[in-house]
Amino acid sequence: MTIQEIQNEIVDEFSMFDDWMQRYEYMIELGKSLPLIEDRYKTQANIIKGCQSKVWVHAELQDDKLVFTADSDAIITKGIIAILVRAFSNQSPQAIIDADTKFIDEIGLKEHLSPTRANGLVSMIKQLKLYAVAYQTQLN
Amino acid sequence: MDIQKIRSDFPILNRKVNDHPLVYFDNAATSQTPQVVIDCIVDYYSNYNANIHRGVHSLSQEATDKYEQARETIRAHFNAKFTREIIFTSGTTDGINLVAHGFSGLLKKGDELIVSALEHHSNIVPWQMLCESTGANLKVIPMNDQGILDMQAYNELLTDRTKLVFCNHVSNALGVINPISEIIKKAHHVGAAVLVDGAQATPHIKPNVQELDVDFYVASAHKMCGPTGVGMLYGKEQWLSKLPPYQGGGEMIAEVTFEKTTYADLPHKFEAGTPNICGGIAFGAAIDYMNEIGFAEIHDYEKELLDYGTSELKKIPGLKIYGETAHKAAVISFNLQGIHPYDVGSIVDKLGVAVRTGHHCAQPIMDYFKIPGTVRASFAFYNTKQEIDTLVSAVKLAQKMLS
């Protein structure tokens, strides 16, 4: 599936809920399915700055596709990074660089998009894209 | 105290957040603003906005009078001996930096500064910078599990090398009231000066700087019903005369030639440039408002809120309160076992409850407890028990959703 198709799928899933509580509960559920980062990668260097809670992300190239693993010490943040990993993992670095993130608005998480918001959703997106740029340079 | 009448003084308390009535428990970050203070700001810009101290015209005179009246209101509130001992600042942080800057010429290598383990970063970093530039050393008064300072350790830290001691009156992260009277007395025995950060105390307590015999006391207007961007520094005249000016500019001079400038007398020596005139006047109005309600009444009512909140929150299984002592301001810093404070804050916000989460700019305290942060509910005299009930239900819901 392309990033766009995965994002549409996530938007469809979230559209089934009518209130914030159900959306948050679902986000927490999604956090449980996050492909977890190996402990040896939970280093200071892999922490995303700008988050009130800790978020670690690791990226590696498998057959020209970028695969992300992550974790967080906060449950809601873990749900947010899980949604991003689901949307961007197993894609080519170029596709990740080109992807937009409007779907965050559509699943009712717009409030988390503000750059000043303490959870650092913006920092997370930036970090995933930075990995993509780095690996794309390697591929060229 | 007529709580409904008081609440009606604060227009913001009528608004909704996320479709729920706002429950504002982030008062330790900033307090809300009563209509009289808002009116005072509107009145200034509508009727007598002018630059002060220089104009010969009537508006300037009017603005100058009001601004200086506010300084007198602040003096009276803190019971300083002289109005010239009150310096307007942009806030607590500014006041601390002013004093730290002033001491840079008075310290030498090997001198010692003492700071409490309970400080806000703003009462740590300026002193670290001062130590770096002068070669002085920074010592720390340790605390115990209740957030109480170890006074025995403090005694041992004090020597004839100690030049300055700084401590907050009330801890912003835990709400603990520190024994500043004792801290000041002991520091004076070895000839050290003391700066007390009153940012978290002044919303709840009316400090008496002469009785405390404190050398410097700093506070912010926005924590005591005033506007942001303005605060006060009290300094004993003998100290303020000794310290060099902080910033150069207009207002702070007596005479300027290219060869030499002589500085203005206190307090203007420390007030370079056009000050926050409107903010200063509104700060005075905020102090008048709080005194009209009465600090004794505020204390008793907030104590009731604190006791009620503490006992209701403690009924939640797995909830731990940090800094639970007999002497504390109306602040409850807590965590739910196994749950990140950020998660709790996010859920309760959805129900209209505003709390602070994180390390509260006091990372050393969080490191002590080995936690990433806490959820902090801080109360003001316009809060109610009913609002505390809303907080408790919201925390319970968060626990259910997050466990």
Q: What descriptive keywords fit this protein?
A:
heterodimer; A: 140 residues; mainly alpha; two-stranded antiparallel sheet; 6 helices; B: 403 residues; alpha/beta; Aspartate Aminotransferase, domain 1; Aspartate Aminotransferase, domain 2; 7-stranded mixed β-sheet; 4-stranded antiparallel β-sheet; 17 strands
Description:
The complex is a heterodimer of chains A (140) and B (403). A two-stranded antiparallel sheet of chain A has the order 1-2. In chain A, a hairpin with a 2-residue loop joins strand 1 (55-62) and strand 2 (65-72). Chain A has one domain (3-139): Sufe protein. Chain: A (Alpha-Beta Complex), CATH 3.90.1010. Chain A is mainly alpha-helical and 140 residues long. Chain A has helices at 3-14, 20-32, 75-88, 93-98, 103-106, 121-139, and strands spanning 55-62, 65-72. Chain A has 6 helices and 2 strands. Chain B is of the alpha/beta class and 403 residues long. Chain B folds into 2 domains: 3-30 and 295-402, Aspartate Aminotransferase, domain 1, CATH 3.90.1150.10; 38-292, Type I PLP-dependent aspartate aminotransferase-like (Major domain) (Aspartate Aminotransferase, domain 2). Chain B is globular, with a radius of gyration of 22 Å. The two termini of chain B are 40 Å apart. The chains are: A mainly alpha (140), B alpha/beta (403). The A-B interface holds A 20-21, 24-25, 28, 52-54, 73-77, 118-119 and B 18, 339-340, 342-343, 346-347, 350, 357-358, 372-373, 401-402.
* Low-confidence parts of chain A: none
Helix content of chain A: 40-55%
- For the record, the CATH class of the largest domain in chain B is Alpha Beta
- Overall mean pLDDT score of chain B? 94
- CATH architectural category of chain A: Alpha-Beta Complex
How many structural units, i.e. domains of chain A?
A: 1
Q: Quick one: CATH superfamily of the largest domain in chain B?
A: Type I PLP-dependent aspartate aminotransferase-like (Major domain)
For the sheet with most strands of chain B, the description reads: 7 strands, mixed
Question: Alpha-carbon distance between the termini of chain A?
Answer: 24 Å
Shape of chain A: globular
Oligomer: heterodimer
Family (chain A): Belongs to the SufE family.
Domain Fe-S metabolism associated (chain A): 11-129
InterPro entries (chain A): Fe-S_metab-assoc_dom
Pfam families (chain A): SufE
